[in-house]
Write a structure and sequence with these properties.
- 60% of the residues lie in helices and 4% in strands.
- By secondary structure, the protein is mainly α.
- It has a 3-stranded antiparallel β-sheet.
- A hairpin with a 2-residue loop joins strand 1 (103-107) and strand 2 (110-113).
- Helix 10 (170-187) runs antiparallel to helix 11 (194-208).
- The termini are far apart.
- Bound molecules: zinc ion.
- Residues 113, 115-116, 118, 129, 133-134 line the site of zinc ion.
- It comes from Arachis hypogaea (Peanut).
- This is C2H2-type domain-containing protein.
- Residues 111-136 form the C2H2-type domain.
C-alpha cells in the first residue's frame, strides 16, 4: 500500500513540475563545452551575452581603410612620410585593424579566423564570428573608430559606386569639410617641414575640396593606387611597342649611311683610275 502511495506521489510531482525535471536532467547529462560546433544554438546564446557593445561600423571602417590605402598611402610612400599616432588616420587608431589582419582568405568562399583557425565560407560570417568570439580583443578607447571619419574621406563614393550628388546636403558638406580640414591640420602640420606641407596640400585637394554641393570638384582628384597601376601598364605597353620601332629606325639609318659611304668610296676609286689618262 505504502509503495503504491509513493509511486502515486512521484507520478503527481512529475506531472505537476515536468520542466524542473527536464532542465535538471539536461544540464547534468550534457554540460556545454566551449569548443562544440558552431551550428549549436546553445553555445551561441551565452556567447552573445558577453558581446561588447561596439558603436562603430566594421563595414564603414573597412571602407575608410580602403580609401586611405588607395588614395593617401601612395603619396605618403612617395614622401616617405610617417603618420603620427596622434593622427586619426594612423593604422593604430583603427579598432578593427588587428582583427582584419587576422583574416585569412584562402579563396572566394574559404575564410579562416587567424586567432582560432575556424573556417567560414563567407567573409561576413567571419565578421560575425569576430563579433561573437573575439570582441574582447577590440580597443574600444575613444578616437579609434575609423568609420567616424567616413564623412571626410568619402567612404560612400567607394562603398556605393552609384553614389548620387543629387542627395547632397549643404550642412553635411560643410561639416565634412571642417572634419577633413582638421585631419589635414593634425596629420600634416605645415610647421613639420616641406613633406608635411606638400601632403597637407595634396590631402586638401584629394579629400576636402570635394565637400561642396556645387558638383564641380570630384573626390580623389589626384588619383590613387588604381590609376597609378593603369598608368604603369599603359606606359609599359607603349615602351614595348616603341622600343622595337626605335631599333628598326636606327638599323635603317645605319644601313643608309653604310651604303652611301660605299657609294662615295666607289666614286672616289673611279675618279683616281680616270686621272692618269
Ligand atoms: Zn576565431
Amino acid at each position: 500500500m505504502n509503495k503504491a502511495i509513493d509511486f502515486a506521489s512521484i507520478f503527481l510531482l512529475f506531472t505537476l513540475f515536468p520542466h524542473q525535471f527536464i532542465v535538471r536532467v539536461s544540464s547534468s547529462s550534457s554540460p556545454i563545452h566551449p569548443n562544440q560546433g558552431y551550428a549549436d544554438e546553445r553555445i551561441l546564446k551565452p556567447e552573445q551575452e558577453h558581446v561588447h557593445e561596439v558603436h562603430c561600423s566594421r563595414e564603414r571602417s573597412r571602407a575608410a581603410r580602403k580609401v586611405i590605402e588607395e588614395y593617401l598611402t601612395p603619396f605618403l610612400e612617395q614622401e616617405n612620410y610617417q603618420l603620427s599616432s596622434k593622427c586619426r588616420l594612423h593604422p593604430e587608431n583603427d579598432m578593427f585593424r588587428d582583427q582584419e589582419e587576422h583574416k585569412i582568405c584562402l579563396g572566394f568562399h574559404d575564410w579562416k579566423c587567424g586567432y582560432c583557425k575556424k573556417s567560414f565560407r563567407d567573409e561576413k560570417f567571419l565578421d560575425q564570428h569576430f563579433d561573437n568570439r573575439h570582441s574582447n580583443l577590440l580597443n574600444l578607447s575613444d578616437g579609434k573608430c575609423l568609420a567616424d571619419l567616413c564623412g571626410a574621406l568619402h567612404c560612400d563614393a567607394v562603398m556605393n559606386r552609384k553614389f548620387s550628388r543629387s542627395k547632397c546636403n549643404p550642412a553635411a558638406a560643410t561639416r565634412n569639410k571642417h572634419l577633413c580640414e582638421s585631419l589635414a591640420e593634425s596629420c600634416f602640420p605645415v610647421s613639420d617641414g616641406p613633406s608635411a606641407s606638400r601632403l597637407h596640400e595634396i590631402f586638401l585637394h584629394q579629400f576636402c575640396e570635394a565637400h561642396t554641393c556645387s558638383g564641380k570638384q570630384k573626390p580623389f582628384s589626384r588619383g590613387g593606387k588604381v590609376q597609378k597601376s593603369i598608368f604603369v601598364v599603359v606606359s609599359g605597353a607603349l615602351i614595348l611597342v616603341l622600343l622595337p620601332l626605335f631599333y628598326l629606325f636606327l638599323y635603317l639609318v645605319q644601313r643608309d649611311m653604310k651604303s652611301s659611304t660605299q657609294e662615295l668610296r666607289r666614286i672616289s676609286k673611279m675618279g683616281r683610275k680616270s686621272k692618269p689618262s
